[in-house]
Amino acid sequence: MSYSATVFRVMIATPSDVQEEREIVREIIHEWNATHSNTARLVLLPVGSDTHAVPVMGDRPQEILNEQILRDCDLLVAVFWRRIGTDTGRAPSGTVEEVREHLEAGKPAMLYFSNALVAPSSVDQTQYLALLEFKEQCKTEGLIEEYDSLDEFRQRFSRQLQSIVQDELQPAIPNAELLEEQLAIRTGLSEDAQTLLL
Question: Sign of dihedral through CA atoms 133, 78, 167, 66?
Answer without folding.
Answer: positive
